[in-house]
Write a structure and sequence with these properties.
2 copies of one chain form a homodimer.
Chain A (H helix, E strand, L loop, with lengths): L10 E7 L1 H4 L7 H11 L3 E8 L3 H14 L2 E5 L10 H9 L3 E3 L1 H11 L6 H5 L2 E3 L3 E3 L8 E4 L2 E4 L3 H11 L10 E7 L7 H10 L4 E7 L3 E8 L2 H17 L6 E5 L2
Parallel strand pairs in A: 1-2, 1-3, 3-8
Antiparallel strand pairs in A: 4-5, 6-7, 7-8, 9-11, 9-12, 10-11
Chain lengths: 254, 254
């Protein structure tokens, strides 16, 4: 399918930096937020990594991901304590200095109303040279952008505030349209039928997900509205022929 | 520190296969379960990846992770539909045949009570050659183990059932001991003090995490009980000197 004025969609990876997620002490709350954020602005989130708070490790992940994807979002590790090493790692990954950024310092002073920054808060003004800042309306300490890497806070409420700031800076793609069909049988009963329909519609991605009990949800995703409608109709017919109750067809946004 | 009879701790990576997590349609529920599982049996979970349902992509991730870590746990993509391609990818990653496994077939027949498997359910008996099976008491369809890769279901209740089966097969390490201190100030106020204590205790990992409002939680982790107690006491003294209320000191398991 071709449309006029269609920009190619950008893809992205998310790097979550945090031992606390890997030890199980904290339950991640950012993956789903960023996944929905990307979906809503037409960016394909292709990979998520959760990495330990180890310098070498973060440098390697940043360098791999920034080469492989259009955008890299990172969360976590930009606070005031010794275990916050994201800015150090990203500076090293880009081979630039990590320096006290005057604007970041001003933002921190401005937010606290203090005349001077404590050593801890000053640490949060350390920004890789050449980066631009991402404003933080919650606690003042900024994130930063260097080339295609967007370093944000790990605290969900701050991260969400930062996402709002960066959204207008990203190249947004066509929204993926989707339909969701809930069917009152297990996946095995629809497997063959779905496979046939998938083969007939290359530009529709059909996924099937088991639900608790004897339900399956079928998700059809495409940026081609006509193909999506045609393939959804075929899935609907297949489902109707099963003569089960409780089928629900929902046009969904995801 | 050295202890007698101490086996070196094993590390692990988790690969979550699922477009539905990357699109935001489904919220992951397995990361935290597996993180706690590893912590509880003394295995270091070092990395988590979420990969799209794309064959080449899964093959690359499996091959990278199995070389870099002692264990690789995967979840998702072993169901009956066309988008379930984990078994295909892992067979390709190990360069072995993907074949109908007689034991897997028997498990599926046994669970359903049928005499014959539908084509969809038969798909779930396709197992990489040389793999051993992971029993699934919930729906019958097994996971599998090949070398250091453990392929499990994505549905949380089935995945949890499979974890129970594989636990006795893993080399369990010494449990990491930990203490948690909640302090009624923001992180900036404790940053310097914590850094000093961290420098004095190489074998204790001290993490600091901002909590909503003006709280911070400090987590000290170590397998050296004496060092953990000493460093915790120092953190406690530092916190006492702040003269804030609401400090709570908890010995915790994580």
């Amino acid at each position: 399918m071709s449309h006029q004025n269609l920009k190619p969609r950008k893809n992205a990876a998310l790097l979550i930096i945090g031992d606390e997620i890997l030890s199980g002490q904290t339950k991640d709350e950012n993956i789903n937020t960023i996944a929905l954020f990307c979906t809503n602005i037409g960016i394909d989130l292709k990979e998520v990594r959760i990495a330990a708070d180890e310098l070498e490790n973060i440098i390697i992940s940043i360098n791999e991901l920034r080469k492989n994807y259009d955008y890299v979002f990172s969360t976590g590790g930009i606070g005031p304590t010794h275990d916050d090493i994201t800015a150090d790692a990203i500076a090293k990954a880009f081979n630039v200095e990590l320096e006290i950024n005057a604007d970041a310092k001003a933002m921190l002073l401005n937010h606290s109303g203090d005349k001077q920054l404590s050593e801890g808060r000053l640490r949060m003004a350390r920004i890789p040279k050449g980066a631009t800042l991402i404003k933080n309306n919650v606690t003042g300490a900024p994130g930063f952008i260097i080339k295609n890497v967007y370093a944000m806070a790990g605290v969900p409420i701050i991260m969400q505030d930062m996402l709002k700031s960066i959204a207008p800076l990203l190249v947004q793609g066509e929204r993926i349209l989707s339909n969701k069909i809930m069917v009152g049988v297990g996946e095995s009963k629809i497997a063959l039928g779905l496979e046939k329909i998938q083969k007939a519609f290359e530009n529709v991605k059909i996924g099937s997900y088991p639900q608790m009990g004897k339900f399956s949800s079928i998700i059809l995703r495409s940026n081609d509205k006509i193909a999506l409608e045609k393939s959804t109709k075929l899935v609907q017919s297949m489902v109707d022929e099963l003569h089960v109750e409780n089928n629900i067809i929902l046009p969904s946004r995801i």
